[in-house]
User: Fold these one by one.
Assistant:
Number 1:
Amino acid sequence: MKIAIIAGSNRRESASTKMARYIGDRLSSLGHEPNLFDLREKPVPLYDPDADAEPDTARELARMVEESDAVVLATPEYHGSVSGVLKNALDYLGADQFDGKMVLSVSAAGGAVGVSSLTQLQVIVRNLHGINCPEWVSVGGDQRRFDEFGRPADERMRIRVDNVLGTFLRMGKQLREPVHA
C-alpha cells in the first residue's frame, strides 16, 4: 500500500516526527510505500479560503494524500490538542483526500500520554471522511527517547508500534479491496 505520513511539528528534535520517521521505516521494511510530508521541512502557508490560488506545498500535500491508500497523522500535543501546524495543513484537505481511508493517529506529549490530541485527531479524521484506526500511538515521558538508529529506545514502544501497525495495515488493506456482492 501507498501510505501518506504527515509529521505535524515545527520542533527540530520532535518526538512525534521521529516516531513518524520510525513508522515510515517499519512500513517500508514490511513492503509498503510510505511517503513522509514533514511540515517543518515543507511548511504550508496559513490557510486562506479566499486566496486566488492554492500554494504549491498545499497542492503537493493534497496530491500525496489523495494518491495514498492510508494515512498516518503525527502531532505533538500542545495545550491538549494537535499542533497548529498540522491543523493548518489539514484545513487544505478534505474528503477528496481522506474518504474511506484508514487513518492512524500518533501523538507525542511532554507528560505520560497524549490522549487529548489523539482524541482531537479522531474528530478531525471523521470530519474529513477518513476512518479512524481503532489503535493509536501515544508517546510520552521516557518513551520519547530514540536510539542512534532512529528507533524508540524503549523496546515495549517498538512492540506497541508493530502491534498497532499490524491492525492499521490489516484494516487499511480491507478498505482498499473491492467489495464483491
Number 2:
Amino acid sequence: MSREAGCIKYGQHLIEFDVVRRERSTLQISVDPDASVEVVAPIGASLDAICEKVRKRAAWVRRQQRYFIQFLPRTPERQFVSGETHLYLGRQYRLNVLHHSEAFVRMSRGYIHVHSHRPDDVELTRKLVEQWYRERALVKLSERLEVNLLRFPVPEAYRPKAMVVRHLSQRWGSMSPGSRLLLNRRLIEAPVDAVDYVITHELCHISEPNHGPRFFSLLDRVMPDWRKRKDRLEKVMA
C-alpha cells in the first residue's frame, strides 16, 4: 500500500486529498470527520485520472466537509480582556492589560502585557494587540522565509520577489505568478513547524504553479513530513 497527495480546484476552494493505493479495481472517495478527504485507488490508476474522479464528486465532497466542519472545535471569539489566552508561535500566552501613560505591548514569561492609558477600552486593547501581532509577524515570518529557502538545492531560485503579510479569510498563503509571497497574519499564532510548512508549500509554487504530481513530488523531497505539519496547523488553528 502506498500513500500520496493530490489536489483539485473547485470554485474558490482547493480540495486536498490523500491517495491510498491498493489491489482493487474501483476507486472510493471518503470524507473523514476531521473534514480530510481520502481516495482509495487501484495501484495502476494515474493521478490525473484520480483527480478527474474527485473533480466529478467535488460538490458532494464539499457538502460532506461543510457538514463535518460545523462540529469541529473553534477558537472562541476574542474579548481582549485580562486573563484571556492568545496564541503566539503555537504557545498559549495570557493577556495582561495594565494602566500606563504610554501605549505599547511586550511579551514575557507566559504573558502578553498590554500597556494602555485606557485599559478598560477593549477596542483600543484589540488594536494594540493586533498591531503588535502584525509587527511580530513581519519579523518572524521573514526569518522563517530565510530558513526555509535553505531546503531547496538552489535557494535563490526559489526566493520570492516580495513578501506581504495581511489578514486572509480563506487561506494561509499564496504565491502570485510574479513570485509575490502573500502570508496570513494569523500564521504568527501557529507553531513554527506549521509556519514552515505553509512557507515551503508556497515556495514550491515558484517552480510548480499547480497542485499536480510534480508539485507534490517537490514538496515531498524538500519537506518529507509536510503532512504531519499540515495536520498540526489545522488542529492548533481550528
Number 3:
Amino acid sequence: MEQFTVPQFIDVEDKIIGPITVRQFIIMLVGILLMALFYKLFDFTLFVVLALFVFILTVTFAFVKVNGTPFHYFLLNLIQTFKKPRLRVWRKDDTLVKALEIENPIAAAPAAPRRAAYSSSRLNELSLIVDTQGSYQGEADDSVTITRNKNLADFS
C-alpha cells in the first residue's frame, strides 16, 4: 500500500516575500497602481488626499484581521448581516395554513385537539420519573394511583 503525505497547516497562506503572502502582495500592487494612476491624472494636492485614502484602504485590506479572518471576509460578512432581517420569527400556524391551502384549497383545516397544560411542578415530577426510569413513582395522585392499580389488576 502506498503512503501519502497529508498536507499540514492548510489554513496558513504561503509567504512569497518575507512575511508577505500572495494575497497581501496583490492587494498592495493594486493600491500602488491606483496611486500611480492618481499621480498621473490629478494635481498634487488631490493626489496626496486620494493616495492617503488608497494607502489606508490598502493597508487595511492587506494586513488587518478581525477575529483571525482577513478584513475583506469580515466586510463581506458585515454587509450580508445588514442585508438580512434582524429578527426571524417562525410562525407554525402560518406555515400550516399555507401548506393546507396548497394541498387542498377548498377543504377547511380541522381544529387541532388541545392538550392539557401541565404545571411546572408536574413537569418536574414527570422528568424525574423519566430520568429514574420509573424507580421514582411520583407524588400520590389519586387518578394516577387508580390507573396504576387498575392496570396492575389487568395483568394478574
